[in-house]
Amino acid sequence: MIINLEKFAAAEEPHWRRMEEILQKRQRDPWAVLTLEQARELDYLYRRVAADLARVTASAAEPELRQRLERLVARAYAEIHGTRGAGTVRFHPWHWLTTVLPQTFRRQWRAAALTVIVTILGMIFGGFAVAVDPEAKHAIMPFPHLLGDPSERVAEEEAAMSDRLQGHKAGFAGQLMTHNTKVTLFALALGMTWGVGTIILLFYNGVILGAVAVDYMLAGETTFLFGWLLPHGVIEIPAIFVGAQAGLVLARAVVSRADGRALGVRLRAVVDDVATLAGAAALMLVWAGFVESYLSQYHEPAIPYWAKILFGCLEGALLVCYLGLAGRKRTASGGRI
Predict the structure, then answer these.
(1) What are the phi and psi torsion angles at 63 (to 5°)?
(2) At 334, is the pLDDT very low, low, confident or very high (cuts 50, 70, 90)?
(3) Which of 61, 81, 101 marks a domain boundary?
(4) Most CB within 10 Å of its CB: which of 24, 166, 185, 207?
(5) What is the full DSSP assignment across 67-106?
(6) For the chain, what is the domain count?
(7) Could you report the per-residue pLDDT of 179-229, keeping only the tens digit for each?
């Protein structure tokens, strides 16, 4: 078929430009919802430009025009037939924070409860070991500064006349965040070991926590202990629980074969919850890192212990209220999630 390309291009140019405008608008905001009229216009222009391409392709002239139409048709095809999975929605940070995250935590409450139980068992074991044999802490404690006499450390901290973190608070906070994030992500990743690795890691963390607590309590430094640990611990420890909770959700997807679904299908079914819980743990660890660097490391007489303990208790209460109450909505059956 012989066509007058100059006349053909002049007649079709408004449609091509309109198609380019629509595609550029979709590129700027790919999550915008098309109205029925807009969808029909896009479909019409796609078919029209595709027909124009077929006519131009038959002619060897104007390769640039053919390439332009090829790009338009390819972009329109991708837009119409879509590459986004069904159910994929735009990420809204506020909605995720106020609704998705707490709902996900409550939906996976059994995994959360298991993380707490395992940690408590570890604390009992570690505390009992140190209470029976104080030398056991040399085998339990991973950090050298925890091996000394608690009373000597408290006396040293309270007598300090200078700020040992002066000029290094941000760096220290970064080190804390990095270390705790590694532990949390490790607990999550170990979910692929059918959850065995996650359980062992949680138990070991509990052993350390219990050993430290009993060591300081037996030394008569309970107030220092609470003032030191509560400000950051009420967020940091639950953050590790949440990361391990994600690991156990992952483990359940790996282990569960009762419904006959393939492993890939089971993993895809929990990927949103795992990602949400991992994100929650990361946010909590960032907060805990700052609090530990800027508050927890300072003791009396610089900061009264009662103030630090009160701060920690308020943080803990707010966290419980947030995870337990935020984003609740009534279901069709009358219950709440």
Answers:
(1) -60, -30
(2) low
(3) 81
(4) 207
(5) HHHHHHHHHHHHHHH-SSPTT-----HHHIIIIIHHHHHH
(6) 2
(7) 888 888 888 999 899 999 999 999 999 999 999 999 999 999 999 999 999
